[in-house]
Amino acid sequence: MMEMKDQGLPEPKFIQELDFRTIIYRYTPQATPQATPQVTEQPTMQDIISLTTAVKNLIKVLEGAMSREELQEALQLKDREYFRSSYINEALHGGWIEMTEAEPNHPNQKYRLTEKGLQIKEEWKK
Fold this sequence. Notes:
This protein is an alpha+beta fold. Helices cover about 40% and strands about 10% of the residues.
């Protein structure tokens, strides 16, 4: 019982009814806020060199959150599968863009630049 008190838990309750029961409160660690700020991923020179022309073009036209259809239209591309594999998937895997919905095939799925994507886009404007 001392361990329970040490963890800030109430003492167990013993209840006598038709049969004997013991209720024990177990310690469940609570998520604590992160003490140090999260470091944002900076694009490295290797990241920039490995950027394909397709991903560069995607980053350039992406403003806010845009759907696949909006992005394809902005880039004047017709082939949905080619666009998905060469543009969207490459940019997602590189950490340049992210999905707005957790479910990949969500009907309201949109894409937006990550911090890394925003940084490189700002660099290109200079």
